Amino acid sequence: MTPADTLSTQKEKKSVATAVLIDADGKVGKTYDAKVTPHMYIINPEGKVVYNGAIDDKATTNTDDIAKAKPLFKLALESALAGKKIELASNKPYGCSVKY
Question: How far is CA 57 from CA 5, 16, 36, 41, in A?
């Protein structure tokens, strides 16, 4: 998507994102070794990756499974923001492979 398309889609979907990274050349994804989408990362204020993994613990496309899934990324972000140790800070992400 172009930057304009991205902004339009955000508005249409009522996104509340405060920032969007458009990585058209894959430079950032390659730097962090992203393999799938979504491949979730949390980078602390010092620039250190403190979470690298899946959005949740249910590698499925069945929407009924969402309610049963452990929200790994959400829990990690809450811990990071509270200054606590992140459980499962590194785990296997799942999704469609990133095509560079």
Answer: 31, 24, 15, 15
